[in-house]
Design brief:
The protein has about 90 residues and is mainly α. The protein is about 60% helix and about 5% strand. It has one domain. The protein starts with 16 loop residues before the first helix and ends with a helix.
Length: about 90
C-alpha cells in the first residue's frame, strides 16, 4: 500500500486531511519563500512539528518542482528504511 502513496493526488484513500491542510501548504510556502531553514505556513514560522520532516520534503520540491510525488518521496524512503531496520533487528534477535 505504501508504494501507491505517491500516486494518490486527492484527499481519499491513503491520504489524511491534515496533509492537505497543514503539511503540503507548509512545504509550498517554504519553497516559495526561498528560506529552507525555517518552515513557514502562510508567511509565519511553523514550529508545531520538528523541522526535519519539512526539510526533507522541501529539498526535493526545490530540486524537482512542486509535484506531489516528490514531496511525498522522502517519507516513503524513511518508511522503507525503518522497515528494513526493523527486519534486521528482528532477524538478529530471533
Amino acid at each position: 500500500m505504501a508504494a501507491l502513496l505517491p500516486f494518490t493526488n486527492r484527499e481519499t484513500g491513503y491520504t489524511m486531511p491534515a496533509e492537505y491542510r497543514w503539511t503540503l501548504p507548509t512545504v509550498v510556502s517554504t519553497v516559495l519563500s526561498g528560506s529552507i531553514a525555517v518552515p513557514e505556513l502562510w508567511g509565519k514560522p511553523r514550529f508545531k512539528k520538528p523541522p526535519l520532516g519539512y526539510w526533507s520534503m522541501t529539498l526535493p520540491a526545490k530540486l524537482f518542482g512542486l509535484k506531489l510525488f516528490w514531496v511525498r518521496m522522502p517519507i516513503i524512503i524513511y518508511s522503507a528504511l525503518a522497515t528494513v531496520l526493523l527486519l534486521f533487528i528482528l532477524e538478529t534477535l530471533f
